[in-house]
Amino acid sequence: xxxxxxxxxxSLLSMAPxxxxxxxxxxxxxxxxxxxxxxxxxxxxxxNRMVEKGYDQKFERFLxxxxxxxxxxxxxxxxxxxxxxxxDFGGYRIKETGLETEENDNDSKLxxxxxxxxxxxxxxxxxxxxxxxxxxxxxxxxxxTNPDWNNKKVVDTRGKRPKENKNMISWGAKKGKEFNDLFxxxxxxxxxxxxxxxxxxxxxxDCSAKLLKVKPLPLYREAIAPLTxxxxxxxxxxxxxxxxxxxxxxxxxxxxxxxxxxxxKDFPEDKIQDNIDYPIYLxxxxxxxxxxxxxxxNGIIQDRHKKPVQTKMKGKGVLKLTKAPMKSxxxxxxxxxxxxxxxxxxxxxxxxxxxxxxxx
Amino acid sequence: MxxxxxxxxxxxxxKVIKSLNRNKRDPKLFILTTSKIRNLLNLTSTLFDESxxxxxxxxxxxxxxxxxxxxxxSGRETSVKDLVKKxxxxxILKEINNKESLQRFCRYMEALVxxxxxxxxxx
Lengths: 360, 123
Prior knowledge:
A: 26% strand, B: mainly alpha
């Protein structure tokens, strides 16, 4: 097979908060809310200092008790109660947006939020977006828009539950056959790391299709703030792969159109954001239909959530929103707001992108 | 005499899991959930990986805090408390004084999760 490397610059612009999880989280007693910032200390260091100061017993007791007011169960109240003024425990700070109120709680004091899911970080502690995350989002769009892949054959019905037929697209080496692995020929780089200042904390909000009511959930995520630019490079090694990436912008529009008709149309228009460039959904909280070949997955996903104990999935489920400060963007025509509602609701995980070939 | 040794930690894990409280309606099920026990394993698995590349004394901070996290998690949920008590986790944590005992403890946590799955704990 002939190898012809072509490089593309993939410029991502977050249209809404985007969260890529590292799989870890901060519990409600692992951050300090103070002076408009959420401070996430290095808890090993923090505890060590408490031991030095002779507060370790008190701290252990604090962790075990549960006071009726949520705000009294946060780390800041332990520090204030014991008049501990140290704040040099390592870690980092994230500026508040003012929208992090825990309205489910009996006291809606700012900063009384629950667990916070951590963003993906490199060994230096700086957040970045792994190329594998973006590649997955690219794959979803490619699979949804190609009739060779978006058909009944993609569902593997053997076994207890239907699952994806992973051999739909040829991959891996096969004895006696020429190596043909399409997604090996599309190489997506990690993003450059970005600073903690690009991160905000956002809450999960569900909007139901039937009642059109929006309700907050006790889940917070570290997320990239809207209008953050993130750059990736994509390298293709075969002509077939290069064509797919060249056509990818149109594919993304096609996917979005299908997704809108399939799912977004059931929801109030003011909760849906218009695109500036080409749409893509990335990371956590964007919903099952942005992660699957939705025409084939429709029905299968609902079946998985039939358990009587859990909440049953009604229809196609809820629209997943989040709150972040309102922002405007200058386009070639005019200055435009990113969102159409006045309640700061964004579609979780929504991003726009442009692709440009880098010619050496 | 140490509670945990290289020879006894697997058997001990099995005994602990067998003795855990079970659901009254369906005795096949534990009261403890997989996600709860996995949360505990998460606390140790990063330490296990780090212990292979870093010096023991650099991990002392984290090991001390690990104890606190176990205390915190067992305070939140009685089923976790049941496990932490029966598995003598807090006592074993006090015994950790070098890399070997730390790694043994991490293996012990893995063994607990393994037997939990084996004896009916579901995903």
